[in-house]
Amino acid sequence: MNKTEFISVAGFAISLLFHMTQAEVCPSTCNCKSLGEMKGLHIDCSSRKLTEVPALPVNTKRLYLQNNSLTSVPPGALDSLRSLEEVKIFDNPWNCDCHILYLKLWLEDVSAASLANIRCATPAPLKKKPLSQLTGNELGICKRLLPVKCLETCLSVLLLTFDTLDFMQQL
């Protein structure tokens, strides 16, 4: 076998392996269709009673997750979907607390149209409110607590500032 034949056979083997790998990575709970060679996949996971987003192929172009039981999406779960062109993720009982922030920010970057279709199911004060309209105050306490060391230092600085202001007022 000469070099050209070897490259052709190797290329065919890699192509075959690529297509086999794509078929293997389709979540078992979803239907996957190829959109043509090297064009990506259409992943339909709608109406499957899913409570979490399954592991998805990186070449997903269309993703349908609507009408499931999703309440949140773990941070980073959708970051590998760089080829995504369409996502439908509405009609899920979204819990609009601090944990929904990843999904909100991800959809702002990827699909504003999908974000507009998402409504909160819980907590009660936010029921039926569009996720796109939530503010930081409505998402609850999303800030990480400051480390104790920082709190001690910050408190010392704050007390020193008040002492200085008090001293200045006496002058």
Short description:
By secondary structure, the chain is α/β, with parallel strands linked by helices.
Structural class: alpha/beta
Cα shape: elongated
Side-by-side strand order of the widest sheet: 1-2-3-4
Helix content: 25-40%
What integer is the average pLDDT? 79
Radius of gyration over C-alpha positions, nearest whole angstrom: 25 Å
Work out the count of structural domains: 1
| CATH level-four homologous superfamily name | Ribonuclease Inhibitor
- Unreliable runs: 6-24, 145-151
Question: What's the CATH topology name?
Answer: Leucine-rich repeat, LRR (right-handed beta-alpha superhelix)
Q: In the CATH hierarchy, what is the architecture at level 2?
A: Alpha-Beta Horseshoe
Percent strand: 5-15%
**Secondary-structure element series:** HEEEEEHHEH
* CATH class label: Alpha Beta
Helical segment count = 4
First-to-last CA distance: 96 Å
